[in-house]
Specification:
With 555 residues, the protein is an alpha/beta fold. The chain starts with a strand and ends with a helix. The chain is globular. The strands form seven sheets. Strands 1, 2, 11, 12, 13, 14 and 25 form a seven-stranded mixed beta sheet that branches. Strands 7, 17, 18, 19, 20, 23 and 24 form a seven-stranded antiparallel beta sheet that branches. Helix 1 packs parallel to helix 15, helix 5 packs across helix 15 and helix 13 packs across helix 14.
C-alpha cells in the first residue's frame, strides 16, 4: 500500500451529488480536490439516448446490479436494485424526471433537525442556483410565478418532453374528471395535479450530472478524477490518537486502483457521496455503525452509530395495466420491424418520439383518501405495458398506470454481509410492513380504477390486465400489491440527519458524521424522511447546500 497524494477534499462517488460538489469545491484554485468513481466514463451511447435506460439498468457497465433480499411484503420476491456505477452515477441511468417534492417535506426536515436551513423557503434558492429551466429561455412562456420558483443559466437543464400521446392526454382528462386538478408546475411546493413530466434533457439527449457539472471543469489543475477506482474503506485515527479532543478523525481513504491498493489523504474532509447503499456500506466497513453488526464481522468500533444502514425508505410502485382498444401505444408501434425503423428515424432526424422518452411521461399527484390533507400518491403513466422490467412489450395495445405511496412508513436496512468491500450488502426494504402502507396500497389501486372508469376513457373499452377485476377485497389487493409491486429506484435515509438527542441520527444538520471529525455524508442517505416525489433533484439541492457549508467560514 502506498500513499499517492494529499488533497484538501476527497469526494467518494462521482454521481448526482459528487459531480456538483467537485465543481463547487474546485472552483477555488487553492482547493485540491480528488473525485473518486468506481465506474468508468459515461461514454456508453445508451446513457445519452433517453430510452437507453432500458440497456443501462442491470448492466454491469453502468449499474452496481444490487438485489434486495427476499421481502415478505413482496410475498418473498427479490428485486433488482439499480444504482449507477459510471460517471454521473444514478443521473446516468435514471428516469430524468425533474421533481422536488413538497414544501412540507423540507419543513419536516427542519423540525426533525432543529435547523431552519432545511425549510422549503431556504431550500428553494439551492434548487434554483443550478437550474436552467426552458420556460425562462428567451421567448419562453414563463409567467411571473414561474420566475419566482425557477432559475436560468445554471448547469442543470430542464426541458419539456418532445412527444405527446393521445391516450395519455385522455388519461389526464380522466384524472380531472376524477377530481385531480390540472397543473402547470409540479415544483412550487404543492405538487397536486396532473400534467406531463418535465425532464433533465437537452434537445432530446439525457442531461446527466457529468455533463452538467464536470464538462470543462474536469480540466481544472486542482481537480483530480480517479475512474474505475473502488474505495475500500476510510482511514480513521482512533480516539486519543488525533490530539483533537479525543474524537477520531477521518484522514483519507483506501482505494483499489489499477490492480493495487492505494491511500489518498485528506487535509480537510472526506465526503461520502456514494448513495443510500454505498455510503452506509463504507461507514460500516470502516468501523462506523451499529456495534453489534461490526462485532459480528470482527470490525473494530471507531464510532458506535446505531443508525448507520437503518431507516431505509423507498417508493414502491404498483403497476396497473389496461388494455386499450383503438389506441396507438408503444406496444403496437415497437412490435414490428417497420415500427422500430420509424421510431429510430424520428429520433435520428428530430431527436423526438419514443427514443426520446423518459421511462414515464404523464404524472399525477393526488390523495389516496380524504384522510390526507396533502397528495400522498404519485402516478407514472406510460403508453406501453410489459410483464416486468426488461421483458418484451405485450403484443396488444395497452397503458401502464404505476402508483406509489409518497410517504411510506415502512423502514428497511442496509447491512454489510462481509468485511470484503467487493461483496454487496444485504438490502432489506421491508416493503408494505406497516398497516398504513398496506392500506394506502389498497386505496391507491382503487383510485387507479376510479380514474380508468371516467367518461374520457369510455371509448377505449378498457380491460384491466393487472391486477385484474376479479380481485376486489382488501386482502386480495394487498396480496396482489405484493405480487406486482416493484421499486421505483428511490432509496434514501440510511445515514439520516437529526438532532443531537436522536440516537439514530448519523449526521448532524450540516451533514457532519457524529463523533468523527473530517467526515461528511452528502447524498440521499441523509434524508430523514423521503421526499414526496422523485429523489434525484432533491439530492442535487442537498449537495448545493452542503457545498456552501463546506466552503463557508464555519465548516
Amino acid at each position: 500500500m502506498s500513499i499517492v497524494a494529499t488533497f484538501d477534499y476527497i469526494i467518494v462517488g462521482a454521481g448526482t451529488a459528487g459531480c456538483l460538489l467537485a465543481n463547487r469545491l474546485s472552483a477555488d484554485p487553492a482547493n485540491r480536490v480528488l473525485l473518486i468513481e468506481a465506474g468508468g466514463r459515461d461514454t456508453y451511447h445508451w446513457i445519452h439516448i433517453p430510452v437507453g435506460y432500458l440497456y443501462c439498468i442491470d448492466n454491469p457497465r453502468t449499474d452496481w446490479r444490487f438485489r434486495t433480499e427476499p421481502d415478505p411484503g413482496l410475498n418473498g420476491r427479490s428485486l433488482i436494485y439499480p444504482r449507477g456505477k459510471t460517471l454521473g452515477g444514478c443521473s446516468s441511468i435514471n428516469g430524468m424526471l425533474y421533481l422536488r417534492g413538497q414544501a412540507r417535506d423540507y419543513d419536516g426536515w427542519a423540525e426533525l433537525t432543529g435547523d431552519d436551513a432545511w425549510r422549503w423557503d431556504n431550500c428553494l434558492p439551492d434548487f434554483m442556483r443550478h437550474e436552467d429551466h426552458y420556460r425562462l429561455d428567451d421567448g419562453g412562456d414563463a409567467d411571473a410565478a414561474h420566475r419566482d420558483y425557477h432559475g436560468h443559466g445554471g448547469e442543470w437543464r430542464i426541458e419539456k418532453q418532445r412527444l405527446k400521446w393521445q391516450v395519455l392526454d385522455d388519461f389526464a382528462t380522466a384524472a380531472v374528471e376524477a377530481g385531480i386538478p390540472r397543473t402547470l408546475d409540479f415544483n412550487r411546493g404543492d405538487n397536486e395535479g396532473v400534467d406531463y413530466f418535465e425532464v433533465n434533457q437537452r434537445s432530446g439527449w439525457r442531461w446527466n450530472t457529468a455533463k452538467a457539472f464536470l464538462r470543462g471543469v474536469e480540466k481544472r489543475p486542482n481537480l483530480t478524477l480517479w475512474l474505475s477506482t473502488q474505495v475500500l474503506g476510510l482511514i480513521l485515527e482512533r480516539k486519543g490518537e488525533t490530539g483533537e479532543g479525543g474524537e477520531p478523525r477521518c484522514r483519507g481513504v483506501k482505494a483499489w486502483r489499477a490492480g493495487e491498493e492505494l491511500v489518498a489523504r485528506a487535509a480537510r474532509e472526506v465526503i461520502l457521496s456514494a448513495g443510500a447503499i454505498g455510503s452506509p456500506q463504507l461507514l460500516q466497513l470502516s468501523g462506523i455503525g451499529p456495534a453489534d453488526l461490526l462485532a459480528e464481522h470482527d470490525i473494530p468500533v471507531v464510532a458506535a452509530l446505531p443508525g448507520v444502514g437503518e431507516n431505509l425508505q423507498d417508493h414502491l410502485q404498483i403497476r396497473s395495466v389496461y388494455r386499450v382498444n383503438g389506441a396507438k401505444t408503444l406496444n403496437t408501434m415497437a412490435n414490428t420491424l417497420v415500427g422500430k425503423a420509424r421510431i429510430g428515424l424520428e429520433y435520428l432526424l428530430r431527436r423526438s418520439g419514443p427514443m426520446s422518452m423518459a421511462p414515464s411521461q404523464l404524472c399525477a399527484f393526488t390523495r389516496s383518501s380524504e384522510a390526507y390533507e396533502h397528495p400522498n400518491l404519485e402516478y407514472h403513466v406510460q403508453p406501453l405495458s410489459l410483464e416486468a422490467f426488461g421483458q418484451p412489450l405485450h403484443d396488444f395495445p395497452a397503458i401502464t398506470a404505476s402508483v406509489c405511496n409518497l410517504n411510506p412508513t415502512s423502514r428497511g436496512t442496509v447491512r454489510i454481509k462481509s468485511r470484503d468491500p467487493r461483496q454487496p450488502p444485504a438490502i432489506v426494504p421491508h416493503y408494505l410492513s406497516t398497516p398504513e402502507d398496506r392500506r394506502v396500497a389498497v386505496e391507491s389501486l382503487r383510485v387507479t380504477r376510479r380514474i380508468a372508469g371516467q367518461p374520457a376513457f369510455a371509448s377505449y373499452a378498457l380491460e384491466e390486465v393487472k391486477p385484474g377485476v376479479e380481485y376486489q377485497s382488501d386482502d386480495d389487493l394487498v396480496r396482489l400489491a405484493g405480487d406486482i409491486g416493484t421499486t421505483i429506484f428511490h432509496p434514501v435515509g440510511t445515514a439520516k440527519m437529526g438532532r443531537d438527542d436522536d440516537p439514530m441520527a448519523v449526521v448532524d444538520s450540516r451533514l457532519r458524521v457524529r463523533g468523527v471529525r473530517g467526515l461528511r455524508v452528502v447524498d440521499a442517505s441523509i434524508m430523514p424522511t423521503i421526499t414526496s416525489g422523485n429523489t434525484n433533484s432533491p439530492t442535487l439541492m442537498i449537495a448545493e447546500k452542503a457545498a456552501g457549508w463546506i466552503l463557508g467560514p464555519s465548516s
